[in-house]
Amino acid sequence: MARTIDQQIAEAQARLNRLRTRAKASETRRKIIVGAVVTTEALKDPKIARWMAATLRKTVTREVDQKELVGLLAELDAKAQGAGAGEP
């Protein structure tokens, strides 16, 4: 039995939605990977730590997100201040 135009449209829309979901998942995974790498390096390097802390404070505006970053910002600040105390 031949599919109607409406059925074909519905199938195409469903396929498009699946592709959009895969693309979003891929983008999210990429962000997680990059975030993990940058965070790890920032916790090793005072210069990167200063940059990351300043950038997060400037760009993260939602209160719920700011609360989530309190611990990380403290770690970054400690690393950034460590540079003045003779750390590399």
Structure notes:
With 88 residues, the protein is mainly α. It contains four helices and no strands. It has helices at 5-42, 46-59, 63-68, 70-82. α1 packs across α2 and α2 packs antiparallel against α4 (70-82). The radius of gyration is 22 Å and the shape is elongated. The chain starts with a helix and ends in a 6-residue tail after the last helix. Mean pLDDT is 93; it is low at 84-88.
Q: Compute the number of helices.
A: 4
Question: What percent of the residues sit in helical stretches (DSSP H or I)?
Answer: over 70%
Query: What's the pLDDT, averaged over the residues?
Result: 93
Number of strands: 0
Largest beta-sheet characterization: none
Strand content: under 5%
Q: What sort of overall outline do the alpha carbons produce when their principal axes are compared? A: elongated
The rounded Rg comes to 22 Å
Give the SSE string: HHHH
Structure described in brief:
This protein has helices spanning 5-42, 46-59, 63-68, 70-82.
Descriptive labels:
88 residues, 4 helices, elongated, mainly alpha, 81% helix, 0% strand
Helices and strands in order, then pairings?
Blueprint: H1 5-42, H2 46-59, H3 63-68, H4 70-82
Helix pairs in contact: 1-2, 2-4
